[in-house]
Amino acid sequence: ALPPEDQQAAKLQRRDLSAVQKRAISRLYGDSGEQVLELVETKPVVALPTVQLRLKQKHEEFLKMKADMEPHWQKQYELNYINSLDHRSFYFKQADKKNLSAKALVAEMQELAEKRSSTEAYLATLPPGEARSISAAVQSLPSTTDVRI
Fold this sequence. Notes:
Elements: H1 4-9, H2 19-29, H3 33-42, H4 44-85, H5 89-99, H6 102-125, H7 128-140
Helix pairs in contact: 2-3, 3-4
């Protein structure tokens, strides 16, 4: 412990406290934070024990609050874990919505109709016997344009 005359003369520079320490004191004391920081600078022997005690109390409160919240956080973490595995589902849903819209379905039907009409137009240009054999071969192929739901 310092002698009383040294305690009165003791001063603390603002630069002796880190930014984190200053911020903690300011947040702890709210609107009076600046006044408390001035007291810490001018009369550190008197102010520091009080500030230190209050910081320890607040730290204990935070630890208790954290312990109380851990089960809730763990439950939320477990609920969100499954969803985090399915991070691409948004894009699949978006693609399905786009592909199954009325506009997309109409466009697909028009495309199929154009293919069919172009095939029929091509077959019409061939001699009759050859056109029938190609037409039979095309009709016997499995359809690859089945609508998928």
